[in-house]
Every structure is written in structure tokens, then in C-alpha cells.
Amino acid sequence: MSATPAAPTTQPRNSPARVILASLVGTTIEFYDFYVYATAAVLVFPHLFFPTGNETTALLASFATFGAAMLARPVGAIFFGHLGDRMGRKATLVASLLTMGVATFLIGVLPTHAQVGAWAAVLLLVMRLAQGFALGGEWSGAALVATENAPEDKRAWYGTFPQLGAPIGFIIANMLFYVINIALADPATPGQPSAAFLEWGWRIPFLFSAVMVIVGLWVRLKLVESQAFERAKQTGGVTRMPLAVAFRFHWKGLILGTFAMLATYVLFYLMTSYTLTYGTRPTDAEVPGAGYAYNSFILMLVFGVVFFGIFTLVSGPLADRFGRRRTLLVVTAGIALFGLLFVPMLGGGSTPMVMFFLALGFTLMGLTFGPMGAFLPEMFPTNVRYTGSAVAYNVSSILGAALAPIIAVWLWGLVDGSPLLVGLYLTAAALVTFVSLLLTKETKDVDIEA
User: Fold this and answer.
1) Which residue, among 407, 414, 419, has the nearest Cα to 70 in the 3D structure?
2) Where in the numbering of this chain does the Major facilitator superfamily (MFS) profile domain appear (predicted)?
């Protein structure tokens, strides 16, 4: 009983720079891949994979494949969570990243509806499900790499770095689409995707993911396993069936963690997919939008996402000082109020007001998303931490992210193009999250070695 590891458990074996880079680079790639698909779901896939003859129907079909990935995420969470709690974080992170990279690259070479008919949509759906399966294991592993290697008083700060991959991935993906769209622009249709873009230009961001995956794999293969997991192995704490243990003994954490993420997910996808759709829809369309050219609105979105990145980092020190629960309660109340501003700000027709709306929404996004990198992992002990946090995070993706774009488009059409009901939908999701947080204990001082 006297034998102990040579280094104290509070000292990480990986250097801070290695931990930050490994947790950041993987999620950046994963979110880049997801955003590339999200952008293509608005600009490309309705035309090339779902040519129904009705603009709204084609968009809903495209968003259905976007949401289908969320259904695969809990399956990926169970699979990769099992591997992560049984075999370790490092090997599991490498496997999830490789799966995502291969699926994204293959989307870039898929035939379209004009070439193979309905099979094009089927193949796109299969690749999308593979993306969701991979992302189901990615986030939790990256969060665990950050938090299990962090000093006790800086876990939330370290936990913001995998979260930072979301805004960075968004900016890279959308700026790449922007540059390609500009390079292939057709003067006859200013502001809209050209024939060359729809024919082959849209494939470039998907193919480029292969380069990013190679870089990510190189970084992650240099990691060593966290001491929390190594100690669990040494003391016989690794369980054979993490999922069964999590559901039997930690079911409350699974439920509360799932609903604690709900408002984050709904806000996340409304601020990205829905605003891009609303912002670029012509004012004279059947369901009218704001009428911005794609190239103009994407720059407005990137402007907003900068606030996402800044306030993701700001949220870490706040959550370390004031606690995860208290910080999230305040931010969630802000999200509920923000949902009431969709009509006067997003639907008001003023460009400065729309930009302020985007900056405010993405600021709230950073403040709610950042602390989750520590909050969800801290809700579970080491032997089921990967599984528990991954299942909660990804089941919430079904309730929030999978349904958000579809519900938003449906609600948008009910009131002749007004975003009123979309905003109220966000407010309702925030109220559910607020109640869940009230029922959750503070995790700031938990022993992550347990």
C-alpha cells in the first residue's frame, strides 16, 4: 500500500503546451469538418443531392441529413467511451479523428443526384452518419485530455481549449468557402454560388480535411496517457462495462448533464446554420429572409464567431473563480432573454443591428460552451468519465442540435418569415437548461482522480 507513483498526481506528465495543443487541434479539425458540412447543407446539397423542385423542401431534406449525424453521435459516444474508459484516452482520440477525416474526405468525392440519382443522397447520409459517429467520441476525449492533465485550480481554464476548436474550425471552414466562392464567382449572379462552385469548387474544403487530419494525428500520437487513467488501471479501477456502470450508478448525472447542454446546443446551431439560412434567403422568397449576399453574410458571421472564441477563453477563469454552476446559471438566464431579441435585432433589417445580434449571440455561446469542457467530465468518476460525459454531451445533441435547424425552419415558415417563434424556441430551451443546472451540484472542487 506504500507504493505510489514517482510524481504527485497533481502534476501532469504531459507538458501544458502539449495538452493544450492536442486538445485544441483535434476539436478544431472535428468542428471544421462539421462546419464544412453545415455550410454545404445550406449552399450546395439542396441543389446537388435533393433537387425536389421546392426550395423549402430541399432545404429541409438537406438539414435532415445534417441532423441525422446527431443520431449517430450517442452511438459513437458509447463505442468510443467504452474504448476510452477501457483502453485509454490517447488511442481512442486517434481513432475518432481518423474516422472523421476519412468520412469528410469521401464526401468530397461523392457523385451527385444528376449522376447516380437517389443513391447520391443515400451515400451522403452514410458519410454524414460516420461523421456523427466519430464526433461522438471526439469531444469527451479531448475534454478529458485537457482536464485530467490540468492543475486543480485551472481545470475550467484548460477545459476551454478543446472548446476553442469550435470557433476556430468555424472560421477556417467558412473562410475557405468564402475564398473559393469569390475565386469562382459568376458576374451574372453576384453574391450567389456560381456554376463552377456547384460543379467542383464545393469539394475542395472536404478534400482539404485530409491535410488537417494528418497534422492532428501527428500531434496526438505524441501524447502520453493521463495520470488519472493510469492510476485507475494500477488500482483496478477500470471497469469492464463502463456504460452499464454509468447507467446504474450515475444515471442522475447523465440526465442532468444532457439537459444542462440543451441551451448550448440550440443556441449553437441557431447562430450558425439558421442565421446563415435566414441571412442569405432573398426577401422576396416564399419564406423571406434578410436578403444578404452569401459573401457578405459569411463575413458578418465570422465577425460574430470572433466573439465566440474570445469569450470561450474568458469563461474558463470565471468558472474557476466563481464555480461552473453559478457561471452557467447566469449565462443561461442571458440566453433566455436573448431569445426574445430575435425579431427586433435579427429581423429588424438593420445591418449594424444584425451584426450586434451576432456578436451578442456568439458571446453568450462562448460563455456557455467554455465551462462545459470541465463541468461535464467533473460530473463522473474516472472509470466512467469518458462514457458518462460523452453520452450526456451527445444525447443532448439529438434534443438540441439535431432538431434545432429543422424546428427553426418550420417555425420560421409559420409566421411568414419572421424569426419570432425561433427566438421563443431558444428561450424555452434555456429555461429547461436553467432548471437542470439548479438541480446539479457544483463540481469545481471535486477530486478528478476519484
Assistant:
1) 407
2) 19-444
Tell me the pLDDT tens digit for each residue of 71-84. Answer: 888 888 888 888 87
| Gyration radius (Cα) of the chain, Å | 21
Rounded to whole angstroms, the Cα distance separating 148 from 380 reads 12
Residue type, 417: G
Half-sphere exposure of 41 (CA within 13 A, CB side): 29
Q: Tell me how far apart the alpha carbons of residues 10 and 274 are, in angstroms, rounded to a whole number.
A: 43
Phi, psi of 449 (to 5 degrees): -80, -10
CA atoms of 141 and 147, how far apart (whole Å): 10
Which residue shows C-alpha cell 443546472?
A: 437
Residues belonging to the chain: 450
Q: How far apart are CA 141 and CA 163, in angstroms?
A: 12
Q: How confident is the model over 113-169, as pLDDT tens digits? A: 889 888 988 998 899 899 888 888 888 888 888 888 888 889 999 999 999 998 999
User: Which one of 7-16, 100-109, 343-352 scores highest in mean pLDDT?
Assistant: 100-109
* CA atoms of 177 and 181, how far apart (whole Å): 6
Lowest pLDDT segment from 9-13, 109-113, 282-286, 288-292: 9-13
In angstroms, rounded to a whole number, what is the distance separating the alpha carbons of residues 97 and 116? 29
- Structural domains in the chain, CATH included, are 16-438 (1.20.1250.20)
DSSP characters over 279-324: HHS-TTSSS------HHHHHHHHHHHHHHHHHHHHHHHHHHHHH-H
323: left (phi over 0), alpha (psi -120 to 50) or beta: left
Q: Look up residue 237 and give its three cell numbers.
A: 479501477
Residue 390's CB: how many other CB atoms inside 10 A?
Answer: 36
Whether 34 contacts 206, CB under 8 Å? no
Q: Does the pLDDT of residue 1 top 60, yes or no? A: no
Give dist(CA 348, CA 281) in Å, integer: 15
Maximal C-alpha separation, the chain: 78
Q: What are phi and psi of 304, to 5 degrees?
A: -65, -40
